[in-house]
Amino acid sequence: MRSWALRYLRCPRCSDRLELHAIDERDRETISGLLVCADGCRTWYPIADGVPRMLHGALRSVAVAHATDAHRRVLADLGLEVRWEREPDRLESVKRSTMASFGFEWTEFRGFGWDDPIFDLAYEEGVFLRKSLLNPPDLDGQLVLDAGCGNGRYSYWAARHGQWVFGVDLGDAVDAAARNTAEFQNIQIVQGDIFGLPFAPSTFDIVFSIGVLMHTGDARTAFESLVPLVALGGSLSIHVYGKGNPLYETVDRSLRARTTKLAIPTMERFTERAYRLRRLADRVGMARALNRFVRLDSHPVGFHSRREFVLRTRQHLKVLLPHDLVGRELQDLLADPLH
Hints:
alpha/beta
């Protein structure tokens, strides 16, 4: 964990400050350690491989699984128990599905958007700026949150133009993101839940979320969880999938009803056939027409990443614009400190 990150992190359970108990430190970074709620609930969170594991509630077992014998010895010295009380979460099954599916996706395709032969970093810069509705000068000197960072490619571009960047994701994608961004000292990756992020209100100058909220199971509440994190005068941008024509949506729902239940090897075979179909459509000049009715990506893993590991509950944000919403248009909302 970067040394600068501690002052911004808060206990996601009670919002109090955290104290650091380092186990393994290298070059002023904490590779392994504990974050303990200092004044409130005394909940603890392990740091493993430089990533604070700050899940709580029904997903706390995922965070605790990263605790080693060294963590347990520190807990014993502090008089804290490894055991915890399980808390109910109406979205637990969706969240666990998210963790399993997107965790596999970003681990298997860790280089997507980085050194991918088609979607490399240079290409992804344009995608980031277009979908975040940000310009490089907007990020200069700013504290930024990438809510749902995946393998960290957008966190990277935010950090290239900004000062400090937190990238947060729910599952094992954080390990891919941490490896991809390891050399960039102004990026901190955190494992956390978008419905209970480990930050105080009004922490960030800029918050963006690209292609995430419609996978959460409750897009509206996820959006409302991000709003208080933006400082007055800050910027919030959300990118979600647009809704297609009725036939497209019918085909999409039919595909998702099946592909979300397939085993990984079966889905990979299905993906390969879908990719060959797209290549054939390209050769005969039918790709544009075909994509009006079904999403077939021109990248070999594109269909895989959009179909296999999409959740069973995809939502469109009726409360937002069809594709994007920018925080500069929410100043009245953000001006209310109680919101």
